[in-house]
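In response to a reviewer's request, we include the raw inputs and outputs for one of the modeled complexes. The two entities were modeled together in a single run.
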Amino acid sequence: MQRLQIDAVVRWSQALANPTVVFVDDLHWADPLTIDVVARLSAIETISVIITSRPSPSLPLDTLIQLTSGLERVELEELDN
Amino acid sequence: MAGEPAGRKVLERYARRLMDTCEVCGAAGAADARFCAQCGAPLGQSHPVIPDDLLTGVRGEHRFVTVLFADMTSSVARTRDLDAETAVGLVNPLLEAMVDVVVDYGGRIDRFLGDGVLAVFGAPTSHEDDPVRAIRAAVDLRDRAGALNLDVTVGVNTGRVYFGPVGSSSLHEELTVMGPTVNLAARLQGAAGAGEILIGESTRTRAMSRFLVEPRVLTIKGIDEPVTAHLVKQAILAPASVRGIAGLHTELAGRDSELATLVSIVSTRRCVLVVGEPGIGKSRLVSETRAVFPDHRWLSARCQDLTSSVPFAGIIDLFVAGWANSPCLPRTSPPGSPASVSVQTSSSSSFLRCRDCSVSPHLRATSTPR
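The model returned the following structure tokens for the whole complex.
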């Protein structure tokens, strides 16, 4: 059932008019099915996905990294005064 | 009633223990002896010192919490003509609902107060969003009471409290919260009308943008100045990010290379993970990136601590706006068939449902928040 739901979401997203950016904030609080969907969305070539998260160790973050290939990473460090 | 303070009795008992007898052989010991003169066993080892807590009288701690008082409205009138058992039958389902809701949102039932409850969010377990949890619990509680054909009044306040045992450590003590924060929460509950939720200013500032509120100035007994409380109207479905200071806009500084990276990624439709500690500027960087692409369609979602165990909760926002007017795409319909999809959300679940094939909701949450 959940598989079908995720498929439906992905199909819907594929059909979106371009250009689309998906922004998922605070991924470290994501539930497992959200992680699944975000990973699937990342694989859709026509849309861009931006995800923010607090650093590891975080199960959602680590799971997403495992599931997603070609996910680039920007580390925000503290600014110098 | 014994006029003697219980704490002193206990002190004396300890003192007698230390002086009087050896616990091994029962021989009388001397007050300053560390070992029994008769058998050589250490004296007073089971109670080597008078516990610090008896000397200070305080064994709790200061905690920053959100306190919730909820009470059934006009319960005296409603139960006046009922025998006690029937009255409990009326009130207990409400108490049960109160416990359910508070525990669902990660709070602790401090105590029942007749047909009401005192609940604490933030002790012993604290969450980053305890004020939000408390208000959502209050909203749910009001709904649950409504389903039982009852009304509740709720007061919520946030601040530093004493959290620990009170009473007599030897005869009767209770673990509870105390302090002006608690008192004001109780007063707010008292000032709320049937079905109303009143929150203190300190709670509102910590839950801003999550709820629609309406200010209400109250005169509270024991407080000289008028108190501004806020009446909670409803939860905001897809709250904006609450970072930063409302209305203040400053130039983004020192993130030129990161911004260039994000802009390039969006231009080429790649995917990026922005990682950083809280407050480092993740959301800000993304909003600056967004400003570069005003013509793109942005679908935004925010995952929340509160719903991190609710299926699909993190991405539901993505589809709230986007899916509401789009064709139905479940397995049973040919893609693109005209159908209307509705969004339903509650505190514990959110799902999209196609009205034509409602047996197959697109998304459905089945569990409750942690």
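As requested, we also summarize the result in words. Chain A is about 40% helix and 20% strand. The first helix of chain A runs from residue 2 to 14.
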